[in-house]
Design a protein that fits this description.
The protein is α+β, with helices and mostly antiparallel strands. It has 8 helices and 4 strands, in the order E-H-E-H-E-E-H-H-H-H-H-H. The longest helix has 24 residues. The chain is globular and about 45 Å long.
């Protein structure tokens, strides 16, 4: 089975997160840019039935959902040390914050952007509770820390940093000082800058 790594993306999408992840991994990959109008075409639905990017194909494995792709890449290429190894006590912390960003953070930010607030008496029904609770928890966790899961950069930092950077840019996340400092550190990484330059150059043709 081929180990070819194929990346399906659009530069105006969450594919930018995975472009950064791939640049951190440093392995050769083929990028397939999917036009926004073609994501429901049968050819792409055969890759991701949701008709959304990003997605990757690694050999015979297709992975969708940005957080899952980040976790997969870190484990598929352990030599780049982008996740605590199995058995390391930090691995639980790593998964906790990777999926906190994929679940509560994204849900809280998205619903707020859409003008929906969970009524106080229904917060126990929503997995994220409310926007303020989510941001307060994340702020406490990041205060006084360089990285979110231990003393080294991981895919959890990449994913959390991506969400904070995007939210700060578009005003969907409050510009708290700890968020701004953390996002700036993460997105200043060489791999992040390379990825952004690649995607930015593709936007006129997207």
């Amino acid at each position: 089975m081929s180990d070819e790594l194929v990346f399906y993306t659009n530069p105006m999408s969450r594919g930018r997160i995975i472009r950064w992840a791939l640049e951190e991994v440093g392995q050769p990959y083929e990028a397939v840019v999917i036009d926004l109008s073609a994501m429901k075409d049968p050819a792409y639905l055969a890759v991701n039935p949701m008709g959304k990017v990003p997605a990757i194909r690694h050999g015979g494995v297709v992975v969708t959902e940005a957080a899952a792709i980040c976790a997969y890449l870190a484990d598929a290429f352990p030599q780049v040390n982008l996740a605590p190894p199995p058995g390391d006590k930090l691995r639980g912390l790593y998964f906790r914050w990777l999926f906190f960003a994929a679940g509560p953070l994204e849900a809280a930010v998205t619903t707020r952007m859409l003008g929906f607030e969970v009524p106080p008496d229904r917060r126990s029904t929503a997995g994220w509770g409310c926007y303020d609770d989510v941001l307060n928890v994340l702020e406490r966790e990041l205060t006084g820390r360089a990285f979110i899961a231990g003393d080294a950069f991981t895919m959890a930092d990449l994913y959390v940093g991506s969400h904070l950077s995007w939210g700060l840019q578009f005003g969907s996340i409050e510009p708290r000082e700890v968020f701004k400092a953390y996002a700036e550190r993460m997105t200043a990484r060489p791999a992040a800058l390379r990825a952004a330059a690649i995607d930015d150059a593709l936007i006129p043709a997207a």
